[in-house]
Specification:
The protein has 6 helices and 3 strands; from the N terminus they run H-H-E-H-E-H-H-H-E. It is mainly alpha-helical and 139 residues long. The chain has a 3-stranded parallel beta sheet with strand order 1-2-3, sandwiched between helices. It is elongated and about 50 Å long. The model has no long low-confidence stretch (mean pLDDT 88).
Length: 139
């Protein structure tokens, strides 16, 4: 479970960040967004998920400090419950059950679409005052 979650999430964010940062530092501007969640602050789903999200948030904080002098903004975006294909398929296939299934069903019913995060990122990327915005986490 650890590798499935953190090789995709944490490691993927790190590797993409390294390559993106190299290009953005050379260009002297840019925006890198890592997707995280409340799971970085409290138990949510399982231990590997929480550790991965905590590490993503820490990576965002540290990278924001190192990249600021190159006019590159690095943020951690915390979407709410997202109606991803994986979550919808898990509900439909009965991979989850009991109280967890009810919680996930509620999340899908009231959750946001993946497009909303994209719109937030476009808004950040096109903000002429991006580097003046406070903090490194946006929720």
């Amino acid at each position: 479970m650890w590798d499935d979650i953190n090789n995709t999430g944490l490691r993927g964010h790190y590797m993409c960040s390294v390559y993106a940062a190299q290009m953005m530092v050379e260009a002297r501007h840019g925006l890198i967004v890592v997707i995280s969640s409340i799971g970085g602050l409290r138990y949510f789903f399982n231990v590997p998920y929480g550790i991965g999200k905590t590490a993503c948030d820490r990576m965002a904080s540290d990278c924001a400090i190192e990249l600021k002098k190159y006019n590159v903004k690095y943020v951690s975006l915390w979407p709410g419950a997202v109606q991803t294909e994986t979550v919808v398929e898990a509900l439909e296939s009965n991979e989850i059950s009991g109280p967890v299934k009810e919680m996930v069903k509620h999340m899908v019913d009231v959750g946001e679409t993946p497009e909303l995060s994209g719109k937030c990122i476009v808004s950040l990327a096109t903000d002429p005052n991006l580097m003046k915005l406070p903090g490194d986490r946006k929720s």
